[in-house]
Amino acid sequence: MPNGVGAFFYEACDSTNARAAELASAGEQGPLWVIAGEQTAGRGRRGRSWTSKSGNLYASLLFRPSIQPQDMAALPFIVALAVRDTFVGLGAPADLVQCKWPNDILIGERKASGVLIESSAKHGGALDYVIIGIGMNLVHFPDDAAFGATSLLDATGREVAVKEAISLLAEKLCARIDAWKVNDFAAVAREWTEHSWGLGQKRELRTHDETFTATLIGLSDDGALIARLDDGSEKRLYAGDVFPVERVE
């Protein structure tokens, strides 16, 4: 672990995010990683279950940044870039590792990692703590995922141990967070855009209440995805999922 960063490892737990939240409520200050060999109740975005068999990386970072909730717009993209750094450092070809809005990382256009960021605010609105949950498919992946999945092993033929992966991830994410300038989202957005999947192309967008196709334009200054509809109008999305247009389920 980087200097000053702690870690707890569990052979199995319900969810590393849930365990990190329990530690925060008990007064743990962090920064601290919670790492599990397996999760019995792993969670993805929007309450989805996260397949959590042994061999992949399941980890959550608890920390207490001195920022306001509205300052967090860049964090999902910073984390995505750190996970991308990690996959490349573990042997994935850099040109095949892409960031998919809002917080997935792809290898060869197939999902290899997801991120779930949760936070709690103090009375008065300031952040109390932030938990960054990260799952990385190192050796296996679900074959029934809504968006086609892969693993580092499947994509590169290289089998990496969890210990090696978390060591590198902790280093990369620590460096990214230390370099984070809260008032300079543009720099983060620019780098994320350089490695993004689907920008400039037509994609199928799914929100909680509609599905439509649009051309992905880029990120707004608050992290929303800007999409251009067929009639030329633009729409900003703050939550949802992106799929290839030709996908049929």
TrEMBL record:
Residues 1-181 form the BPL/LPL catalytic domain. Its EC number is 6.3.4.15. It is an enzyme of class 6 (ligase). One of its GO terms (molecular function) is biotin--[biotin carboxyl-carrier protein] ligase activity. InterPro entries: aa-tRNA-synth_II/BPL/LPL (IPR045864), Biotin_CoA_COase_ligase (IPR004408), BPL_C (IPR003142), BPL_LPL_catalytic (IPR004143), Transcriptional_repressor_C (IPR008988). It catalyses: biotin + L-lysyl-[protein] + ATP = N(6)-biotinyl-L-lysyl-[protein] + AMP + diphosphate + H(+). The keyword Ligase applies. Gene3D superfamilies: 2.30.30.100, Bira Bifunctional Protein, Domain 2. Keywords: ATP-binding, Biotin, Ligase, Nucleotide-binding. CDD domains: BPL. NCBIfam families: birA_ligase. This is biotin--[biotin carboxyl-carrier protein] ligase. It comes from Kordiimonas lipolytica.
